[in-house]
Amino acid sequence: MPIASLVLVEPSLAGNLGAALRVAANFGVDRVDLVRPAVDPDDDDVRRWACGAHEHLDVRRWARFEQAVAGYRTLIATASARGRDNLPVVTPSEAAGRLADRGLDSAALVFGNETRGLRRRHLDRCDLVVRIPTEDGFPVLNLTQAIAILVGFLRLQAAPPPPSAPEPATEAAVDGLMGHLESALADIGFTEPDNPERILRKLRRLFGRAGITDNEVRILRGICRQMRWAARTDPETVVGAHPEAGDPERG
Question: Which of 4, 186, 193, 243 sits in a 20 to 30 Å window from 142, CA-based?
């Protein structure tokens, strides 16, 4: 089973983009999402390198990263481990094992610009960060090489999830939860006013590693509603749950 999509953030070279489209088609990836590409995917040089891949792909362009990834349930970033000690960097084998529980058909592989790679804010949005093992003395892979290695390896290694396994929540649902958490944690004074992202970033990584489900998102948002109500209520008047909080199991 192939992954759902490749997400390419600000690709800049026609040859790389065309070759990446060809690799996607080679391994049965149906869709490629391009975030602010510096080269038109219909450019003649791109089509030359793609070797007919356009006929097999749904190629979409987006102005914002958040728009491109909103519908996927698992985002897998690619980055060098150097300088990433505080990120949950895993090997391709570890990523395949985790995808076996989540499913490839709702996952997207995210690749950065050929020169800069992925920005920190993009890495923070992803559930897993994968590093392809390379020689320490010459570790940098070409964009298309990295795509080919990971797409091919994950297709071979990640088995379909058990039928009873719940799907992770979409990125859009997790985004909504993070916004709710930011407000609720600020209301109770848990986050630092000048740097709320420090805690929120760690929580987002936790949710990504856990593969948080839609039901779990609803439960946590119910907790957030109760926290916000309690923070605004005189403790001496509190006798029970907020009447509009509802049952978090029902959203």
Answer: 4
Looking at the domain covering 171-250, what would its CATH class be?
mainly alpha
List Cα–Cα distances, 138 to 77, 84, 141, in angstroms. 21, 18, 9
CA gap 124, 107 in Å, rounded: 16
CATH of domain 5-157: 3.40.1280.10
Pairing of strands 128-130, 74-78: parallel
Q: In the block, which residue shows the tokens 């916004």?
A: 179
Stated pTM of the model: 0.72
Count of CB atoms situated within 10 Å of the CB of 84: 15
Q: Using one digit for the tens of pLDDT, what is the confidence trace for 11-46?
A: 999 999 999 999 999 999 999 999 999 999 999 999
Token pair in block for residue 16? 């790389």
CA–CA dist 186, 220 (Å, integer): 15
Q: What residue spans in the chain does CATH classification 3.40.1280.10 cover?
A: 5-157
Contact of 177 with 225, CB cutoff 8 Å: no
